[in-house]
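Lecture 7, part 2: worked example. A protein chain together with heme C.
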Amino acid sequence: MFSISRQTLRRFLVITLCAAAAAATSSFSTAQDEPKKEKQNPIETRMRAKLSASATVLEGLATEDAALVSEGSKVLLDLSKAEVWQVLKDTEYREHTQGFRNAVRRMEEAAKEKQFASAQLEWLEATKKCFDCHNHIRKTKNAATK
Ligand code: HEC
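Predicted complex, written out as C-alpha cells:
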C-alpha cells in the first residue's frame, strides 16, 4: 500500500517536473525573442552594452588587469563613436561625448603603463560623464515636454 502511494507520488513528481520544464522552455523562448525587441531600440541596446563594458573596465581596474581595462575601453570607445550616440546635436552633448571618450582613452593608456591609481581616477572622470550626459538629456527632454 505504502509503495503504491509512493509510486503515485513519483508519477506526480514527474508530471510536475515536466510542467515546470515546459514552462521554463516557453519562458526561454520569450527570452530568445528579446534581441528582436532590442533591434527596435538601438540606443537601449548600446547603452546595455555600455553597462556591461563598464563592468569589464571596473573589474580590470579592481584587479589591476590592463587587458580587461583595454577590452572594456575598446567597446566603450566604439560605442561612443557610433552615429546612434548623436541623439542631441547641441554643444553640451558633444562636449560630454568628447569628455567621455578622452577620459576613457587616458584611462586605457594609464592602465597599459600599469599606472592603476591614475587609471582609476580617469574612470571616475569617465563615469561622471555618464551621469552628466544623462542629466543633460533628461533636462532637455523635460524642457521639450513643458
Ligand atoms: C554623451 C552622452 C552619453 C554618455 C557619455 C553616456 N550615455 Fe548612456 N545614454 C545616452 C543616451 C542618449 C541614452 C538614451 C536616453 C533616452 O533615450 O532617454 C542613454 C541611456 C543609457 C541607459 C538606459 C538604457 C535603457 O535601458 O533605457 C543606460 C543604462 C546607460 N545610458 C548607460 C551608460 C553608461 C554606463 C555610461 C558610461 C560608461 C553612459 N551611459 C554614458 C547618452 C550617453
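The helical segments are 2-40, 42-62, 66-81, 91-112, 116-145. Residues 43-44, 47, 50-51, 54, 85, 87, 93, 96-97, 100, 127, 129-130, 133-134, 137 surround heme C (CB under 6 Å). Keep this in mind for problem set question 3.
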